[in-house]
Amino acid sequence: MDKTEWKVLKEIADLEKTPQGAYNFRLNGQLDDRKTTEHIDIVSKTDKPGINIIVQPGTKNESVHIPVVLSQTGLHDVVYNDFYIGEGAEVDIVAGCGIHNTGCETSQHDGIHVFHLAKGAKVRYVERHYGEGPGTGENVLNPKTEVYLEEGASITMEMTQIRGVDSTVRDTVCVVGPGGECIINEKLLTDGAQRAESNMEIILDGADATGRVVSRSVAKGESVQVFRPCMTGRAKSFGHVQCDSIIMDRAKIKSIPAIDAQDLDAQLIHEAAIGRIAGDQILKLLTLGLTEEEAEEKILEGFLQ
Amino acid sequence: MLEIKNLSYEVQSEDGRLGILRDVSLTVPRGKFVVVTGPNGGGKTTLARAIMGLVTPTAGQILWQGRDVTGLSVTERAKAGISYAFQQPPRFKGLKIGDLLELAAGVRLSHDQQCQYLTRVGLCANDYIDREMDASLSGGEVKRVEIATVLARRAPLMIFDEPEAGIDLWSFSQLTRTFKALHEEGDATLIVISHQERIIDLADEIVLVSKGKVAAQGPKADILPQLMADTVAGCSYMREGGN
What is the ipTM of this complex? Predict the structure, then answer.
């Protein structure tokens, strides 16, 4: 990887050198570097592009980094990654895709991820999407994520898209087994003519399953955002969906949260709010000596923190 | 020194021009503690906001440390050393109390420093530094954080708009001690809008603002009886003791 590609890697995975633990770097549709550990194996698929990540039962305090970097303009990279997390394992998975587009053609990455968490497994999944480059070509990221949680398994997903992605359609499905927990923290910022669509379906499929979605977004310029989070309770379960958006300039935001109870003891809540930055928030920060631009930046930074 | 000269603020109402502030003149010498009091709707908050630049007066002048600040923006006034604690402070989703204190101070603060500012308003730092300044805080908590942000600014002019509103008795005692200590340090000029006798007791001078004017100005012993008389005299029902 060259300097530019490492810079992108720093943005998406906070890496300045190869990380500790297992990793798989994908660059322009090809394997760039890989390391496995005693407990975590990474195997290339033979029928289609992508990898299987196999975490042995009982693995603790280990991490897997699987970043993707695209620096070749016009490339449409599709990758299928399957994660098999063994019983009782506890791991951090850092994914993410960064595009550096220097040309006039569209660069696109579609990451199709399927997670299978065995009984009692615990995963923290961090995914950052980022685009940059002097080119006029669009940066497109269309991730599809499916998660299957067995009894008592839990996943916390932190999905962030802060800059430079012209178009994204994110599809996330999570099926939560008995006593399992799915937490999704989504952060999204769009600007200019960017478009973002996020569809989520959380299915609480077993007794005492829990689902929480917190989505925070900022739409600037003439960008357009659409959110469709749906929480379904098929058993005695608890689900909470919270969507909060700040709208600016001439942007458009549509938020359509849905809750679907299919059991008498499913307790489901949704909250959604869209609004501009409150005038008194700006005024308060002006009285602390900030300029209007600085105040706005601090408010957005805090909101998407 | 703060000098307010012939300050007026008018708004357009159904009945024509309505004077919220009417030819207000006031001088607050450096290091003095002045309590501004008076009936609701009398113009106290508008006066405070005009000093901070949050309200643009329709006539008059504001001089701070000899400099005419009437045409300055809020940011410029803040940089010139004027600070203001809002009567109804805003909340911020995601912004932590520790972050807000640092923004106010304009520098990185150590845990100890953050702790000091919060303790002075009766908040335990360990419980609050990492909390978000959002709707999970009660009105009284937000109010106390607001006061702490002004303390963290260490500005030579501090204006507090009804700091006691919504604050419990114990925290209120802490707050009066804080105001007393600030005054004793002698560096800051303090203007506190308040109706509380325990705050009024701390002041060098009381300014009674009523119907958009400075109705009286002087030591507590002279002003308090007048305030009571004004409030009761204006209403025949109250004058007759409610009978």
Answer: 0.92
